[in-house]
Write a structure and sequence with these properties.
globular; Jelly Rolls; two-stranded antiparallel sheet
Length: 122
């Protein structure tokens, strides 16, 4: 019997626009349990992650701060947590259906703010 290998599933890359401007980092969609659980742990600061059907995230074992963007079912921004430090929880249960994790400072605060709808191109 062959040795067990950890299977890495490819994540789908996407583009996200706010106010007609693209968020300037590589953003991927977390689909599997492991991708959703691990989030940006052990990743580089240049990646972002969209986690659908999710209303909270943790930053356990992270090596950098992240910005957590809480979205409703239509990808409209409900709330933003800026600079969430490692080993913290970020949760918003007010209409939050999806979470966008981004490296802290990855977007222009004047464009991304509550009430703005994001356009997601997969």
């Amino acid at each position: 019997m062959p040795k067990t290998r950890i299977m890495r599933q490819k994540m789908d890359r996407m583009k996200i626009y706010a106010g007609g401007r693209e968020i300037a980092c590589d953003i991927y969609e977390a689909k599997t349990f492991w991708q959703r659980f691990s989030g940006l742990m052990f990743k580089s600061r240049k990646y972002g992650l969209l986690i659908e059907k999710c209303s909270s995230v943790h930053t356990f074992f992270m090596e950098f701060n992240i910005d957590v963007v809480c979205l409703d079912e239509d990808y409209k921004i409900v709330e933003i947590f800026y600079g969430v430090k490692p080993f913290r929880l970020a949760a918003s249960f007010k209409k939050t259906k999806h979470i966008l994790e981004l490296p802290s400072g990855a977007f222009d605060n004047s464009v991304i703010k509550p009430g703005i709808s994001l356009k997601i191109v997969k």
